[in-house]
Amino acid sequence: MKTNEKLRHILDVTGISVSTLHARQKGLFPKGERLSYNARTQIFYGDSRPRFSTLVKISQLLEMPILELIEDTEFEDIFFLRRNKRFDSFMYNDKAYADIVTGPKCSFMSMELHIQPGGKTRPERSPTDENTKYEKCAYIISGRLRVYVDKHEYNLTQRDSITFISSKPHYFENAFNQKCIALITLSPKHF
């Protein structure tokens, strides 16, 4: 089913109009972040394909979980996300944060980790489960990164990678003088 068909079906079933969605967004989003009437109409009637960030807003307006909204649509199997439209991030502290770069239905999770000089993440470890092997991979996009895994230290530079069992205690540190950006992948996905 196409996204616009599903959206129209939801409106039909719930009895909500496009005008009602317009009124609802006034209480949810700042003026510059609201969807215009023309944009909503084009999305609902198939004249344009919505971005995922737009679908997140529509799911909030419909008071429906985003996963339910994209179920059985083209967004269920393909997830395209522009770098300036990330919809979820995680703050470790004022010198380290990560943007989620994978779709919500993926079995794994990838994050773009940003660490300023002198910054580090907090120590963490994945659940210990005898039936599941939790793994983490870090790939350095730019800068340098020090990785601590189970009391061992590894220094990585641009295009280096490290993979480890993430149920062991670990954290990332930028002990260097330039910002580091790394792609961190967790498999399977967990929080």
CA-atom Rg in angstroms:
20 Å
* Quantity of strands, as a count: 9
Global morphology: elongated
Q: Name the CATH homologous superfamily of the largest domain.
A: Jelly Rolls
N- and C-termini, Cα separation: 31 Å
- The oligomerization state is single chain
Which structural class best describes the helix and strand composition? alpha+beta
As residue ranges, the low-confidence spans are none
Core attributes:
191 residues, alpha+beta, 434 Repressor (Amino-terminal Domain), Jelly Rolls, 6-stranded antiparallel β-sheet, 3-stranded antiparallel β-sheet, 9 strands
Structure summary:
With 191 residues, the chain is α+β, with helices and mostly antiparallel strands. It contains 5 helices and 9 strands. A hairpin with a 2-residue loop joins β1 and β2 (96-100).
Word description of this protein:
By secondary structure, the chain is α+β, with helices and mostly antiparallel strands. It has five helices and nine strands; from the N terminus they run H-H-H-H-H-E-E-E-E-E-E-E-E-E. The strands form two sheets. Strands 1-2-3-9-4-7 form a six-stranded antiparallel sheet, with no helix packed on it. A three-stranded antiparallel sheet has the order 6-5-8, with no helix packed on it. The longest helix is centred in the first third of the chain and has 12 residues, at 3-14. It is elongated and about 60 Å long.
